[in-house]
Amino acid sequence: MTALADILQAEITASGPMRLDAFMAACLMHPEHGYYATRDPFGEQGDFITAPEISQMFGELVGLCLAQTWLDQGAPNPVALVELGPGRGTLMADALRATRGVPGFHDALQLHLVETSPALRAHQSETLSAHAPTWHDSADTLPALPTLSIANEFFDALPVRQFQRQGDGWCERVVGLAEGTLSLGLSPKRIEPALAHRLEDTSQGDIVETCPAAASVIDALARRIGAHGGAALVIDYGDWRSLGDTLQAVQGHDRADILAAPGMADLSAHVDFEALADAARGTCKTTRLAPQALFLSRLGITQRAEALAAQMSGPMLQAHHAAFHRLTGRDEMGTLFKVMALYPEGAAPPPGLDP
Q1: Which listed site, 146, 171, 204, 315, has its alpha carbon 20 to 30 Å from 23?
Q2: Which alpha helices (H) appear in the chain, and where do they start and end?
């Protein structure tokens, strides 16, 4: 049990079972006991490792992709360079280093970071202080400018709701109490108009996940891109359409019970890219969904890896080859992670992605 578990049990006792997205939000962002609010979860000493922590190549190629998009759209000045959920600032630092030679790019950019964790803001401040970042609690307060945005493993951490099909209706999964401990249960069956189309591709007992917060973030980005130009890269694990229970807890690089230690483990769920595309429709365009390996290959990761390898030997070279495989391997992040971009009507899609 944890301090947050006691708080959640008291709330459930007083008000009844809570929706799964409310439980997830509390576990991740409770101001005193939430997972992201109280720690740095990244790296070998944390609970998981993201692509920027695996190799500098990832952030370099993402940065060059956005810089080329900026050039393709006429090099607007000023331009907002945005990262959602920047972690320690590693990806952005690599992107900025790789784009120093792009004429005019750094002079034009204003750096904006969407981050709510005080602990992670402190890391970002140290890593990116030379670029005078501005922090935001949400994408809604980003400036009305051409916007180049990256969201790497951001949407998977947004709270999800889960619905289990029962006949022609749905029962929502909730967190309640059983014998004094947190337990998953189901709400009474009801009709969910927003899930009417999912009756066509689901069966009795199937679980469908939705993420209300994701649509709000995409709307904020799409409105800026549609009106002012730019692009947004979304890189995450998931697929075109949600099906099944993908909510997981990770603690110390291992899977954990999502209810066992609220606030002490990371919670995430697969991203439904179809829902993201639907949220952008009518405001800006989206690219086809591409595996991360294909995206990075088109941007030249093999050539970059070979150039770096030429300067290495021994254990450093072995680690470099392992990092390349982890980013691009079919049995690693290469196919599990997908990439999609938002971009304006009438513009070319960002490099590495098909319209």
Answers
A1: 204
A2: 3-15, 20-29, 35-38, 51-54, 56-72, 90-98, 105-108, 118-128, 212-228, 273-280, 292-298, 301-309, 314-328, 333-336
Measured between alpha carbons, how far is residue 223 from residues 52, 231, 257, 273, 338 in Å? 28, 11, 38, 18, 23
pLDDT tens digits, one per residue of 178-197:
998 999 999 999 999 999 99
- Give me the amino acid identity at 71: L
Peptide bond into 351 cis (omega under 30): no
H helix intervals, 174-231: 212-228
Closest alpha carbon to 226 in 144, 344, 143, 146: 344
Split at pLDDT 50, 70, 90, the class of 46 is: low
DSSP output for 4-59? HHHHHHHHHHHH--EEHHHHHHHHHH-TTT-HHHH---BSTTSSB--HHHH-HHHH
Q: Quote the pTM value.
A: 0.94
* Cα–Cα distance, 318 to 301 (Å, whole number): 17
What is the rounded distance in angstroms from the CA atom of residue 293 to the CA atom of residue 308? 18
Amino acid at residue number 167? G
pLDDT tier for residue 138 given thresholds of 50, 70 and 90:
very high
Q: Which residues are paired to 135 by β-bridges? A: 113
Instruction: Identify the CA nearest to 154 among candidates 110, 58, 218.
Output: 218
Strands 134-136 and 109-114: parallel
Name the token pair of 45: 């000493």
For the segment 339-348, the average pLDDT, to the nearest whole number, is 98
The answer to whether 176 and 12 have CB atoms below 8 angstroms apart is: yes
8 A C-beta contact, residue 19 and residue 11: no
Name the 3-class secondary structure at 124.
Answer: helix
